[in-house]
Amino acid sequence: xxxxxxxxxxxxxxxxxxxxxxxxxxDLVAYTDTGVLSTYICVANSTGNAPSSGGxxxxxxNYVSQGQAAETNxxxxxxxxxxxxxxxFTDADHTKLNGIEASATADQTGSExxxxxxxxxxxxxGTITDGKGNVRxxxxxxxxxxxxxxxxxxxxxxxxxxxxxxxNESVMSAGDAVTIINNSGSNQTITQGSNVNLYNAADGTxxxxxxxxxxxxxxxxxxxxxxxxSGAGLS
Length: 235
Description:
This protein is mainly beta. Among the domains are: 10-65; 132-234, Sandwich (Jelly Rolls). It is 14% helix and 37% strand. The protein has three helices and 19 strands.
């Protein structure tokens, strides 16, 4: 008569695997392979055969529950960076940023920027403007009454119809230029203010000047009180 081993009617937990223990079918063990703890069931009597190696189960064993290696910062980062639209700052982004930082220079001074501009040609397909407007155009100011030059008039054309123009000291700076257009058929007076030398480029004389109807003249300042004037209809 056959003998029934009641201990084998169910699975038998044998604890942590021991290389010297003889295991039989349906024995369960726990075993750590390459740092991963898993549970195995014996499917063929086995002694001295580790349940798995390098993540592959031995022929005498099957996995019951295969563990997973603990995630490291590096493995988590790799998975996150590989995810679509993760919006994460990746190692590649970090490398690019380091490259930009390595190529960057210290904040440049005004003189350094000026020297760089002076050593290069500036080209553009668009419009170049400054505080006065398009550098290819001369901004126009219309005046319908007497006008005294102010600093913001520099680089502009003043079209005056009546009242004349007065030029005072310490308003313009060396290198400034102003164009005056007589927008009428009558003479307009360009008045030389106190401590100002308004040199007529035609004869070198100073003093007030008369700009005939529809005449045009330009003043060029060599200092804040000395300017040269020339033009059509000027006397």
